[in-house]
Structure formats: C-alpha cells, structure tokens
Amino acid sequence: MYAIVEIAGQQFKVSKDLKVYVHRLANEEGTKVSFDKVYLLDDNGTITIGAPAIEGASVEAKVLQHLKGDKVIVFKKKRRKGYKKRNGHRQYLTQIVIEGITTSGSKKAAPKKAAAEVATEEVVEAAPKVKKAPKAKKEDTQE
Fold first, then answer.
1. Cα 142–chain centre separation
2. Average pLDDT over residues 89-114
3. Contact 94, 63 (CB under 8 A)
C-alpha cells in the first residue's frame, strides 16, 4: 500500500515504515504528525484518486530528528570580466518515518469504462447518403 501525499509543500510517494527527509516542520522530535492532503491511494491494486484530495484519508508519521542537508555551493562567474561570486546554502530538513496510512469509508473510485459503455448504447442515426451525379465525360474533338 502506498500513497501520494503533500508534506510541507512537496508531494511524496510514501509507504509504511519509510523514512523521508522533508522541509523543516515545526513539530518537536518524537511527536506524531498527521497529513491530510492525500492525492492518491493504492491498496493492492485498488487505486483511489482524489479530486483534488481524498476526503477522510490521512498519513500518520513520527518526527525522528531535525537536521541540516548537505552544503550546496553556488558559484557565479563571468569570464574576462573579473566577476566571481561564491555562496553556500544548507537546507533545514526534518526526518520523519511513516507509521501508517489510514482511509475512511468514503472512497472515490478511479473512473471505469462505464462512460464508454454509455456512449455505445446510444443509437446514432446516420443521415442518408446522397449519391453524386456522374461527371460529364470529356468529348474528344478533332479539328
């Protein structure tokens, strides 16, 4: 079972017992967090798609630790101009572990072939074909 969920402005594909690094959350280490913006659920082949989110579905997670990501060096240069700028950045991250994916009784099933069947049941009468008059043959004239 997996789900597509929005956590801190980003979408993640998560499953049970998965460790994920997300943008810094305001929760303390060791606390439990619930995310309600679940966009897709796959339960052993049964796919549920939300419009835009699935009502009643949520993902439960536990905050493991707050940390900083790897340093990213931003280096700008314009050749032959003497212009060089060096800047660094470390993103603040939170490591969480997914403890479970819960769903409620109301599910919106993925669209089935019912719409195609309805279209085939409708009888469309074709307009009678109009026969075109044959073209006049070009007569050979000799002078």
1. 76
2. 78
3. yes
- On the CB side of 24, CA atoms within 13 Å amount to 8
**pLDDT band at residue 131, thresholds of 50, 70 and 90?**
confident
**Checking DSSP bridges between strand 58-78 and strand 32-35, what pairing results, if any?**
antiparallel
Cα–Cα distance measured from residue 23 to residue 36, given in angstroms and rounded to the nearest whole number: 17
- Residues 98, 14 contacting (CB under 8 angstroms): yes
- Among 107, 135, 114, 113, smallest CA distance to 49 is for 107
Q: What is the pLDDT of residues 8-64, one digit of tens each?
A: 999 999 999 999 999 999 999 999 999 999 999 999 999 999 999 999 999 999 999
Say how far apart CA 47 and CA 19 lie, in whole Å: 23
Q: How far apart are CA 49 and CA 37, in angstroms?
A: 12
CA-closest candidate to residue 98, choices 127, 58, 51: 58
Residues 62 and 33: beta-carbon distance below 8 Å: yes
**pLDDT at site 107:** 45
